Amino acid sequence: MDKFTPYHERLSALQNAGNIRSFRPQTDLLNLSSNDYLGLARSHLKDEFIKTHQHHADFCFGASSSRLLTGNFDAHEMLEQALQAAYGRSVLTFNSGYHMNIGILPAIADDQTLILADKWVHASMIDGILLAKERGAKFYRYAHQNLTQLAQLLDKHHANYRHIIIMTESVFSMDGDVTDLQALITLKQQYPNVSLYVDEAHGVGVFGDRGLGVAEALGVMDEIDFLVGTFGKAWASVGGFIVCDAIIKQLLINSMRPLIFSTNAPPINALWSAFVFNQSIKMQDQRKRLLDNARYFINKIKSLGYECPSDSHIIPIIVGDNQKAINLAEALQNRGFYLLPIRPPTVPVNTARIRVCLTANITTDQIDKFCQALEELTCC
């Protein structure tokens, strides 16, 4: 046995379970796996941005150091100001949504903190919880969307901790279900020491009149203590942000390790993010078309007999078995549709699926052709 044997064994185990993965090149197929929900990543906005900003002092491709050293540019401040104007509270931006979620909890938690997280929160949030645990925080994960269990946990533990943080997503990335944020806020308001942490990664750009997320659509933005989101999906950029009280922003600047010890995002990226964000606020037509098509798609999928828990633009086609999901994805690719199989541990065992992510550019005619191909493959 040599030093690589354990790695070969682990890869073989993944292969045998139907869970091996690899990078894939871009294709000319109809992309139904993209997070480019508003269709902006390859839009005309690129040319308009370059024309407008190419002579800006911050039109440069590297920050060269962390934000607390020499990596803070006017472009980064401008991006935060644009978000603050829209959300009405303090905003702090980060290099990525992953950096954001692994850094916030360890910066604010201690041994008097309890974290109650939905079972299906994103891996970055779970990693943030585990890092907070190293600072003494305790945590429980309640069953997905089971607010009865969450209420029981709050009732049992609220008197034992100085601070309790409920963690959830507004739109869950694998089932596409939308969280009842109003119900969570009602629970939170029963206890003075409870805060709410909501990841709007799949909600921003899509929900709300200005595309600020599910919290905007439900009119509850001010009730969410830690409202986080990403530029890397509907807003066609990269990076993350938090909307919070000013004191939380100052605490994160002074104690959040991924912020303190990482080179800041390139200034040109901040310029682009601000540009796309300001443009997207006016894209009500694209949001309506996307969500109308999502409802149309969901009804079509259900009519074919598939379980589909979604009420958003993320639409899973649950097939159960890993190999069946792999085979179905390959067959659909052969029909001209780019989709990938989603398997454990990303989703629970026996719930392997094809996940469709709609964008505003996809038409009902394309949806009909996809569903026809799916029906034919199901019947074979």
In short:
The protein has 380 residues and is of the alpha/beta class.
What is the strand arrangement across the widest sheet? 2-8-7-6-5-3-4
User: Could you list the spans in which at least 5 consecutive residues all have pLDDT below 50?
Assistant: none
What is the β-strand count?
Answer: 12
Q: Decide which structural class fits the backbone.
A: alpha/beta
Q: In what range is the share of β-strand residues?
A: 15-25%
What summary fits the major beta sheet?
7 strands, mixed
Radius of gyration in whole Å, from Cα?
Answer: 21 Å
**SSE order, one letter for each helix or strand:** HEHHEHEHEHEHEHEEHHHHEHEEEH
Helicity, in percent? 40-55%
Output the number of helix runs: 14
Q: What distance separates the N and C termini?
A: 45 Å
Mean pLDDT: 95
The rough form would be described as globular
Feature tags:
14 helices; 12 strands; three-stranded antiparallel sheet; alpha/beta; seven-stranded mixed sheet
Give an overview in words.
The structure is a single chain. The protein has 380 residues and is an alpha/beta fold. 42% of the residues lie in helices and 15% in strands. The chain has helices at residues 5-16, 45-53, 74-87, 97-108, 123-134, 147-157, 181-188, 214-218, 246-255, 257-260, 267-280, 284-303, 322-334, 364-379; strands at residues 30-31, 90-94, 113-118, 138-142, 163-169, 194-199, 226-230, 240-244, 314-320, 337-338, 341-342, 352-357. The chain has a seven-stranded mixed beta sheet, with helices on both faces. A three-stranded antiparallel beta sheet has the order 9-12-11. A two-stranded parallel ribbon has the order 1-10. Strand 5 (163-169), helix 7 (181-188) and strand 6 form a beta-alpha-beta unit. Helix 12 (284-303) runs parallel beside helix 14 (364-379). The protein is globular and about 60 Å long.
